[in-house]
């Protein structure tokens, strides 16, 4: 196969992966706590047989998480929480601890705070948080301290990954943390607020159009190369 076709196919594969990422961003534009993702393109060289020549190929398997904060919307929900600035909540899932910015929590039948999927919200010591039965008033301070009828019962944990590049998107709004996970020194939590997605739909649609056009140009090139090769084969077989 012609080297130009190999190079173009690697580019097309990367553009398709970026299109899928953009489509996922658009689909989650209204998902509470969602973090926009982008695709990282890079170049790598491939050796051509035993010769000292190389071919430049495109690689777009890396992803980057956009950590810019989303807009905070007031809900007045007693267990709706939003983080101002850096940091993530930590929830306990069947696959292990996961970071999230989605702060819609509610007590389960045992009084433990859980997210919309039933994952336990963890405190600053990575233990479950329980609200005593029969309390009338629950307040959560900016540092995460929970008081029930003026009695402290726990503290919501806010954690910061050692290297944001270690964040691995698992599903929805959940991220697998890297090896270095530290409690935030000065967390800022807002009770009765939720953080919206940080996706800008107009910008994503614009980028989607650009990627689609780039993909179509690459496909046009591949079609022309295919026709050229067929013409050469037909001429030589006569």
Notes on the structure:
Strand 14 and strand 15 (174-176) form a beta hairpin. The protein has 2 domains: 3-66 and 199-236; 72-195, no CATH class. The protein has 238 residues and is α+β, with helices and mostly antiparallel strands. The model has no long low-confidence stretch (mean pLDDT 88). The strands form 8 sheets. The chain has a 3-stranded antiparallel sheet with strand order 6-5-9, with no helix packed on it. A 3-stranded antiparallel sheet has the order 10-11-12, with no helix packed on it. A two-stranded antiparallel sheet has the order 1-2. It is elongated, with a radius of gyration of 25 Å. It has 2 helices and 18 strands. The chain has helices at residues 3-27, 201-236, and strands at 37-47, 54-65, 72-74, 81-83, 89-93, 96-100, 106-107, 113-114, 120-121, 138-140, 145-148, 151-155, 159-161, 168-171, 174-176, 181-183, 189-191, 193-195. Helices cover 26% and strands 32% of the residues.
Characteristics:
238 residues; 2 domains; three-stranded antiparallel beta sheet; 18 strands; 32% strand; alpha+beta
List the quaternary state of the chains.
single chain
Contiguous helical run count: 2
Side by side, the strands of the main sheet go 6-5-9
When the domains are counted, the total is 2
Q: What percentage of residues falls in helices of 4 or more residues?
A: 25-40%
Q: What sequence of helices (H) and strands (E) makes up the elements?
A: HEEEEEEEEEEEEEEEEEEH
Low-confidence stretches: none
Rg over CA atoms? 25 Å
Mean pLDDT: 88
């Amino acid at each position: 196969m012609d080297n130009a076709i190999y190079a173009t196919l690697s580019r097309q594969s990367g553009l398709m992966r970026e299109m899928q990422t953009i489509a996922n961003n658009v689909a989650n534009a209204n998902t509470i706590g969602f973090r926009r993702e982008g695709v990282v393109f890079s170049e790598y060289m491939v050796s051509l047989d035993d010769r000292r020549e190389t071919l430049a190929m495109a690689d777009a398997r890396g992803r980057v998480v956009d950590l810019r904060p989303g807009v905070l919307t007031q809900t007045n929900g007693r267990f709706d929480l939003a983080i101002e600035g850096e940091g993530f909540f930590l929830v306990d899932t069947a696959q292990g601890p996961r970071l999230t910015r989605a702060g819609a929590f509610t007590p389960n039948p045992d009084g433990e705070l859980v997210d919309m999927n039933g994952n336990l919200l963890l405190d600053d010591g990575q233990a479950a948080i329980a609200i005593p039965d029969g309390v009338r008033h629950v307040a959560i301070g900016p540092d995460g301290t929970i008081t029930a009828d003026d009695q402290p019962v726990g503290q919501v944990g806010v954690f910061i990954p050692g290297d944001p590049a270690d964040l691995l998107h698992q599903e929805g709004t959940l991220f697998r943390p890297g090896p270095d996970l530290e409690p935030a020194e000065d967390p800022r939590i807002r009770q009765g607020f939720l953080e919206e997605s940080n996706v800008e739909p107009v910008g994503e649609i614009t980028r989607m159009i650009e990627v689609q056009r780039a993909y179509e140009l690459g496909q046009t090139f591949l079609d022309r190369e295919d026709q050229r090769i067929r013409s050469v084969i037909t001429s030589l077989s006569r």
